[in-house]
Amino acid sequence: MKRLLSILSLLCALFNNAYAYDFSAVAPSGQTLYYNIYDGVVYLTYPGSLNGHYFWLHYTQPTGSLIIPDSVSYGGQIYAVTGIGDYTFYNCNQLTSISIPNTVTEIGGYAFYQCSGLNSLSIPNSVAYISGYAFSDCFGITGTLSIPNSVTYIGGYAFNACSGLTSIAIGNSVTEISGYAFRFCTGLTSITMKSYPPTIYSNTFSGFPVNIPITVPCGAASSYMSAANWSNFTHFVEGCTTITVTTNDFTLGGVTGGGEYTVGDTVTLTAIPFGGSRFIGWSNGSQENPLTFVATTSQNFVAAFGVGELPHDTVYVHDTTYINNYIHDTIVRHVNHYIHDTTFVNNYIYDTIYLNHYFHDTIFINNYIYDTIYLNHYIFDTVYIHDTIYIQEGESIGNIALLNAKIYQRNGQIVVEGAEGYPVYLYDVMGRLLATRRETAQEVMLDVPASGAYLVKIGDAPARRIVVRQ
Predict the structure, then answer these.
(1) CATH 3.80.10.10 region(s) of the chain?
(2) Which secondary structure element, helix H or strand E, spans residue 420, and what is its range?
(3) What gap in Å lies between CA 296 and CA 176, rounded to an integer?
């Protein structure tokens, strides 16, 4: 009896201490996860003894949305999470979504087997190996499954019975897709291959109709039609798109990235300014450089380049009109420091809105700058386009009205020359009439109540704006 008790005690000790994991840690999403350390990195694993997985009642299965961390801390050291081991989340059918970090390079066998509650799947562009049964019986995953370009191998039964999938796109590095990898994926209506024919088996796509459309790279249809087991299919489509890229002026800059692409490929366009030029934006409105997107159809892009310095206080250019490769009208965006509302008088823009009592932007009329911005009596931001007009003591604004009259400030007054016989109106910037004068004298003197901006209108000519400093 005593010997029997000793044997039972030994078995219980072995049974209770044969854990599958080295340590545990709480995930960012709140679930407790279990890890094994191997060669300086860690792999996710299951917590139960032997092949128990989460069988034992004192181990709580992860549920809901799971975020797998890219690193964990244990024993005063930080380890990168590089793999999801065999059976890690076996039958965790209450998981609804998973976020796999870009540090993971391998997804083990049965890793998510029968996780039927998963409703979406995103495999990061770091995974190279997807083992057998990795996502088998995950029939809740719907829509398009994208196998990234990093994956080189897809194991047998890896996506078996994922009946909610409607299409799959397999990256350009896959060299082998094992038997029954997509068996019983009854919802699939199309396949996109981004590489030349990888090795498959007669049962890799078991049950698929032979005429299912399979999109292949440009020029690869003949290779697929003659490749072992691929030749069983009859409907291959070369998914070719043409991305054309050019510049608004080849003397100011060049571009790279145009050419033939297969649908689903990642395209990267780069604009390269020459000399003192600068990149302004792409013809689709984007200012990203390089510009990266997924090819879906043939497209044309123009990279716009300009010359000169950017304005001092402008975060820019949303829509720009180009005339002879020069910027004529710039429309700025965003709040704070920018034009939000504009007062219109006789269909001309005259006044900007103030922010904290300072001017920050310049108004354009017919490609001429009518208003130069002052901050503490200094020009703060001026964009030089065609003609810039500075209002200084004793200087005049001429040759921009229908009349030959000149308007300037002198000794804190506004002086109008050449308005003989015409009515002269003085407004504040809100459009309120302050004074009306009609004289035959060569000079009309207008008193103003304080320093600031005013509008002067002569007869029916457009009003003009002047800044007075007293």
Answers:
(1) 19-238
(2) none
(3) 26
Rounded CA gap, 46 and 112, in Å? Answer: 11
Are 407 and 447 spatial neighbours (Cβ–Cβ below 8 Å)? no
For the whole prediction, is pTM greater than 0.70? no
The predicted-structure confidence for 3-53, as pLDDT tens digits, reads as follows 333 333 333 333 344 457 999 999 999 999 999 999 889 999 998 765 556
CATH architecture designation of domain 19-238: Alpha-Beta Horseshoe (3.80)
Instruction: Please list the ranges in the chain whose pLDDT falls under 70.
Output: 1-19, 49-53, 55-57, 308-403
pLDDT, position 454: 85
pLDDT at 265: 83
pLDDT at residue 2 in the model: 35
> Which amino acid, one-letter code, is at 228?
A
CATH number for the segment(s) 406-468 = 2.60.40.3080
CATH 2.60.40.3080: which residues of the chain? Answer: 406-468
Alpha-carbon distances, residue 444 vs 129, 293, 436, 455 (angstroms)? 86, 63, 11, 15
Burial code of 10-20, b = ≥16 C-beta within 10 A, e = fewer?
eeeeeeeeebb
Amino acid at 248: N
Which strand (E) or helix (H) includes residue 223?
helix 221-226
Chain centroid offset of residue 328 CA: 28
User: Rounded distance, CA 150 to CA 268, Å?
Assistant: 18
Backbone angles phi, psi at 377, to 5 degrees: 70, 15
Rounded CA separation 155/113 (Å): 13
Give the C-alpha distances (Å, rounded to integers) separating 385 from 125, 326, 364: 47, 9, 9
